[in-house]
Amino acid sequence: MQDRDGNMQDRDGNMQDSDGNMQDRDDNMRDRDGNMQDRDGNMQDRDGNMQDHDDNMRDRDNMRDRDGNMQDRDDNMRDRNGNMQDSDGNMQDRDGNMQVFLANIQDRDNKMSDLSR
Fold first, then answer.
1. What angle do CA 4, 7, 9 make, to 5 degrees?
2. CA 96, 99, 105, 106 torsion-angle sign
3. Confidence category of residue 104, pLDDT binned at 50, 70, 90
4. Are the C-beta atoms of 71 and 79 separated by less than 8 Å?
5. Mean of pLDDT over the chain
6. Taking a C-beta distance cutoff of 8 angstroms, is the pair 87, 78 a contact?
7. How far, in Å, CA of 30 to CA of 94, rounded?
8. What are phi and psi of 12, to 5 degrees?
9. Which residues contact 1 (CB under 8 A, 6 or more apart)?
10. Where do the record's region annotations for Disordered lie (predicted)?
11. What number of other Cβ atoms are within 10 A of residue 51's Cβ?
12. What is the DSSP-derived secondary structure letter of residue 17?
């Protein structure tokens, strides 16, 4: 079925406009490249990566914001340099060194230095 504006609707109620964009029954929008945009303006590409309104990118398990910071399923935050921050605000760098919220640093060899003094 094709309407006056050149929009195409298939038997299952999926709508395709004249630019090749596809809208399914649930108001999800899929463009020609297979990218999906849902009703709330969230964008999901063909591989299941999700980008929300705020330009945060969510791959299947992890969240990446505009600055390249990564948040995994457990609310741990990893920045572009591979540093990890958990949900309590503790920071762990790529080498496994841990910095806790009170600015105490403990390296892998259990040497502790307190920066708060």
1. 115
2. negative
3. very low
4. no
5. 54
6. no
7. 38
8. -85, 5
9. 8, 9, 10
10. 1-117
11. 19
12. -
Report the C-alpha gap between 115 and 117 in whole angstroms. Answer: 6
Q: Of the given ranges (33-42, 68-77, 88-97), which has the lowest mean pLDDT?
A: 68-77
pLDDT at 26 over 50: yes
Euclidean distance between CA atoms 6 and 100, whole angstroms: 60
- Residue position matching structure tokens 């790529």: 94
What is the value of pTM for the model shown? 0.20
How many CA atoms lie less than 13 Å away from 101 in the CB half-sphere?
5
Q: Which two tokens stand for residue 70?
A: 């990564």
